[in-house]
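Complex 204.
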Amino acid sequence: MSENRFYTLPDLPYGYNALAPYMSEAQLRLHHDKHHAAYVNGANAIFERLDRARTEGTDVDIKSALKELSFQAGGHILHRLFWMNLAPAGKAGKEPGGVLADGLKKEFGSFERFKKEFSAAATSAEGSGWAALARCGLTGRLLIMQIEKHNVNVYPHLRIIMVLDVWEHAYYLDYKNERPKFVEAFWNIVNWDEVNTRLEALMK
Ligand SMILES: [Fe+2]
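Predicted structure with fe (ii) ion bound:
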């Protein structure tokens, strides 16, 4: 864990052109360098505001600050996960292996059924949001979440292992308004090893 008390924008674990043609360099640059960066800066500004108020002993609008922090921090954390669970198509692999493959088969019956449900969650998210695959800490079940904005419909006890960003800023340059085409493209650039590793860590 970092001792830094503020968020930092992580470098991508691959080149900006590495996800083409499924995600273009221009789209990825805009998404990472501008949109993700804005959530990092937004969250840090609130942390600074809270720190300053505490140091100076001044009042702060706690309700407003915490609501905004939930959104900005959610944006940062989900984007951070998103970049890590993507990989260039040549390295991505077509299907998951390991405990992830076993878990998906157990929960959904087949990988194809999981893909269908996850894609439906992604394409039908109202407005701006995410589809996420998560593990329930109470039952060990793998559950699909449909997150609105960055922080609505998030269950407290679910640990997220894979996300797909379906905000328009994630795909508009490449796919215009055709979100289903972006969702279909996503399946070519999933880093299944990373998702599997994340699940393994939760099962220990
Ligand atoms: Fe995004």
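The two ends are 18 Å apart (CA to CA).
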